[in-house]
Amino acid sequence: MVYTLEKTRTFEISRRRFTREEYHRLGELGFFRGERVELIEGDIVRMSPVSPLHGEVVTLIAETLWNLFGKGYRVRVQQPLAIGDSEPEPDIAVVAGKPGDYREAHPTTALLVVEVAQTSVEYDREVKAPLYARAGVPEYWIVNLDEGCIEVYRDPAPLGEGYAYRSRRLYTRGEQIAPLQKPEATVKVEELLLG
Length: 195
Prior knowledge:
Layout: E1 2-5, E2 9-12, H1 20-28, E3 37-40, E4 43-46, H2 52-69, E5 73-77, E6 92-96, E7 112-117, H3 121-134, E8 139-144, E9 149-159, E10 162-172, E11 176-177, E12 187-188, H4 189-192
Parallel strand pairs: 7-8
Antiparallel strand pairs: 1-2, 3-4, 5-6, 6-7, 8-9, 9-10, 11-12
């Protein structure tokens, strides 16, 4: 990071980035003391507390996706994905597999990632979306509770010096949405937003 003071002096602050192994070791040593944190691009980031609405929407969407995907898939709730020197804990990640497939290591990608956003929508768009795109997650949903819509991102690709999704579509109440991997399995948007 570079900061400029009074437009006359420039100085650089060096940051200590952590590997996933170091992050796990800190957790084993009790460094986080029960705090909800995740590792993003080597930075340890505090996560917001889960509100009752957020928790209920996450549970509802997880149950819905479990019913849509069924056998052969795992619907992981607030569990890590191992992406380079990041270990985000998305609200929901749908991954291929059966029980026990991830007992030795976290998945490195997913078929669908869902973040439920009340206060974190900009973070989910600007930080999480490029991270999931880099991991090759073909579809990313931001369930935007404040605006009452679901932002659907598809078609991850390298763009410029990073990664991004080339397609973005908003789904609102009165519309139906279906996961890319299960196009025949539709659900009403308002059902996922709790009315």
